[in-house]
Structures are given as structure tokens and as C-alpha cells.
Amino acid sequence: MDENARYQVLRNDEDQYSLWLADLEIPAGWQAVGKEGTQDECAAYVDEVWTDMRPRSLRERMENAGS
């Protein structure tokens, strides 16, 4: 593993996160969230912001079922 590699954090339409090498093209369906750094820095950011692992569509269905 290249310890000097730069990563960026991506998020998809389901509010799921992924780490992606910063110099690679972002795949369809994903958007950069503006966080870039080492793998550890990006992973720490994801740990901080991704507090609900359920996909957005599931969260919305569960919220609607409860109302």
C-alpha cells in the first residue's frame, strides 16, 4: 500500500460513503464531498459523519411506516 496516496471521500445518492483514490475519475452515481487526505484522515472523517449505515431509501421507508 502506498502511504503517500491521496484519497477523497465520496457519497452516493443513498448517503453511503466510500474512500476513493484522489487521482482516479469518480464513478457514476458518486459525488465528492470535499474531504481529501490520507486514507486514515478520510476514514476518520467517514467514521465521524456516517452515523447511520442504513441506505437513505430504507431510512425513509422506516420513517414513513412509523408515521
UniProtKB/TrEMBL annotation:
SUPFAM superfamilies: MbtH-like (SSF160582)
MbtH-like domain span: 2-48
Cited Pfam families: MbtH
GO BP of this protein: siderophore biosynthetic process
GO cellular component terms listed in the entry, alphabetical order: cytosol
Alphabetized InterPro entries for the sequence: MbtH-like_dom (IPR005153), MbtH-like_sf (IPR038020), MLP_fam (IPR037407)
The name this protein goes by in its record: MbtH family NRPS accessory protein
Organismal lineage: Bacteria, Bacillati, Actinomycetota, Actinomycetes, Kitasatosporales
